[in-house]
Structures are given as C-alpha cells and as structure tokens.
Amino acid sequence: MTAVLTGALVLSALLTPASHAAGSGDTTITDVVVNGGAELALGPTAPKTFKVSVTAQDDSGIKEMKLRVSLPSYIYHSSDRGLSCVANSATTSTCTGSWTVDTSNFYGNGPADDHWFVNANATAKDGDWFDTDRAATFTVRRLARLTADAGPEPVGRKASLTVTGNLSRADWKTHKYGGYSGRPVNLQFRAAGTSTYKTVKTVTSGSGGAVKTTVRATADGYWRWAFAGNSTTSTARATGDYVDVR
Asked: How far is CA 59 from CA 21, 32, 88, 156, in A?
C-alpha cells in the first residue's frame, strides 16, 4: 500500500455532519487515531513529528489506502516515510504514517484556532472504495510552559512561603514564547514520600504570565504550578520545587 499523509490530535466523531464523503460498495473507515490519542502541541520553532493510524473495512479486504491531513487553507500532501499497513483480519486493515510540522514556517497563530482534518481514501480488493475529506477532525495547540520557585528555603514550620512562577505559550508569529496573562493557574503541593499533587489554590496569571501567591509551610514537599489548557493552548505543569520545612 502507498500513502499521502498523517496527522495530530483531539479527534471528533468519525464523519462529522459537515463531512464530504463518497464511495461505492461496503468500504468504510472505522477508526482514526492521531498522535496515539495524546494531546498534540507545538512549540515556537522546533519541528514536531507525529503519527496517524486509519482503519478501513470491506468484506473483500482492503487493497490500499491514501491519507493526508488538511487545514481549511492548507494540505500536507505526503507522509514523511510513507504508510505502514497491517491486515488485522480478512476484512480490516490499519495504515499508519507520520510526518513533521515545522512551526518556523507558520506566519501566525491561526492553525491553533482552526480545525484540522484527516482525509482518507480506501480501496477494497473487489474494487469498492470510500473517500472522505473528514475521516476525523482534530486540533493542534500552542505549547505552554510553566516555571515554579518556592522560598525561602529552608522555611520554618507554619511560616509564610512565597511561590512564584511564569506561564508562557508558543507564539507562532514571533517564533518565541510569550507570557500568557489572565489565565487560571493552580498551585499544587505534593508531600514528601507521596506521589500525588493536590491543588491548594487557584490564581490568575498577571502581566507577562506572572503567577505569585503566599501559603503557610506545614510539611516538607514539592510545590508546582499547573495549567489545565484550553482550546488553543496545551496543558502545562512546572517541575516541583522541593522545600524543607524545619
């Protein structure tokens, strides 16, 4: 089998109401998985490679598939390395490909606002076929980053502890990270010897993405900031900053 693509993340249901599809016979697309089902977020310049897997079915078996990914204004025509296809059964096959998106070629942040589409064409061994420009839709988000710094270190038990940080996200127009203000950011704590962070309070990021708050130090452990993400921007978690309470 040969190819023409691969994609990214956050899939809608297969064949949305606005889909444009045509075919002959009983060939169907039964599943699409982008980036392994994980969130897909791109930094300001670093190229990102990800995979798309499309599963098709026909009572005679699948002969070949062609795939591509598109934006409303742009089409990625080919997979970086072609397609790798596996017959799951006598009637069903899955094809997987990958390609690289380089945001240094972007001229703005529009791709984070647009829906991306997986286009798929499947041909069966008996000549049946199915073609759709929206086998699935997904979103590509701007990569967010968070820092955290807690002090003073060490700190007295029940003394005030100040935790600062900064929330930023990729800007595909300037090709740099920029502060992300006006967003809810959770302060989280993980006690020493445990594995789970718990949210202590929520603050709103200020000018340049700055976050700051004061808490009472009661136990040794790690402090971090966490951002839940939104429709255009990825989730982000700072590395925990360990504080010794004496």
From this structure: 20, 19, 13, 71
